[in-house]
Structures are given as structure tokens and as C-alpha cells.
Design goal:
- The chain is 0% helix and 60% strand.
- It contains no helices and nine strands.
- Strands 1, 2, 3, 4, 5, 6, 7, 8 and 9 form a nine-stranded antiparallel beta sheet that branches.
- A hairpin with a 3-residue loop joins strand 4 and strand 5.
- The protein is elongated and about 50 Å long.
- The protein starts with 15 loop residues before the first strand and ends with a strand.
Length: 139
């Protein structure tokens, strides 16, 4: 009679994505962008959103690519800044100046199951900025 000993099972990595839902208005200081829905389509079965602001990493434990996008507009010229954060630590930044645009950023690095991925934004300008579309994804 053979005895089989197996180590712990590791779950396969699950790509995750959240899509912007509704309009957000960043302020003059960095803060998490609110208003996201998990994209649980066939391509992103591991999607889970926490607190209406963070994508929760599912079954990871190694190198991933985090891609973010935020479509914004204002009534005049503004400079808009975006941060990708992992558990509150900034890992990538980008900025854009104009009256509207789609601000993107990408980061490659290691994450763990349960990590929180957020985008933070701020602007400087005479009029408020509205964020109306976007996504955060881990692949």
C-alpha cells in the first residue's frame, strides 16, 4: 500500500479588475478615488473590491502587472496627478496637464494575496476635476 504525502495546495493566480462607477472629484491633496465595481467577467474571475476604493489581490504571490486608467475633465487647465498604491505605499506616479484627458500608469512588481491596490489622485487648477471612467487591473 502506497502512502502519498502532499504539500500545501497553492491556488492559481486570478487576474483582477475594477471599473469606475459614477463620478469622483479629487481634491488638492492625494486621496483614494472612490466608486468602483468589481469586473467579474470571464477574464477577471478574481475581482473583489473593498471599501468602494481598493482592488483586493486574489491568489497571488509573485510578479504581476498593475495597470490603471482614469478619464478626467475640468472647465479650465489643470494638472492632475495619479498614484498607484499597494497597501498604502506609492509604487508608481504619473501626471497630465490640460482641460481633460485619460491618465494612465503601469507598475510591475510583486504582490501577495490580500494586498489592496488603489489609485490616488489630486489636481491643481482653478476648477474642480471630475473623474468619470477608469479601471484598475492586476494581471
Amino acid at each position: 500500500m502506497a502512502i502519498m504525502v502532499a504539500g500545501p495546495r497553492t491556488a492559481a493566480f486570478l487576474p483582477s479588475k475594477m471599473n469606475k462607477n459614477g463620478t469622483a472629484s479629487p481634491g488638492s491633496s492625494f486621496a483614494p478615488v472612490q466608486g468602483w465595481l468589481a469586473d467579474t467577467s470571464g477574464s477577471f474571475p478574481g475581482s473583489l473590491v473593498s471599501g468602494n476604493e481598493a482592488l483586493v489581490v486574489q491568489n497571488a504571490g509573485g510578479a504581476v502587472t498593475i495597470s490603471v486608467s482614469a478619464t478626467w475633465s475640468t472647465f479650465s487647465t489643470a494638472t492632475v496627478n495619479i498614484n498607484i498604491t499597494v497597501n498604502g505605499s506609492v509604487v508608481q506616479t504619473n501626471s497630465q496637464t490640460g482641460a481633460s484627458g485619460t491618465l494612465t500608469a503601469t507598475w510591475n512588481g510583486a504582490v501577495a494575496t490580500g494586498d489592496f491596490i488603489r489609485i490616488e489622485m489630486k489636481y491643481s487648477g482653478s476648477f474642480a476635476v471630475s473623474v468619470t471612467a477608469g479601471f484598475v487591473q492586476v494581471t
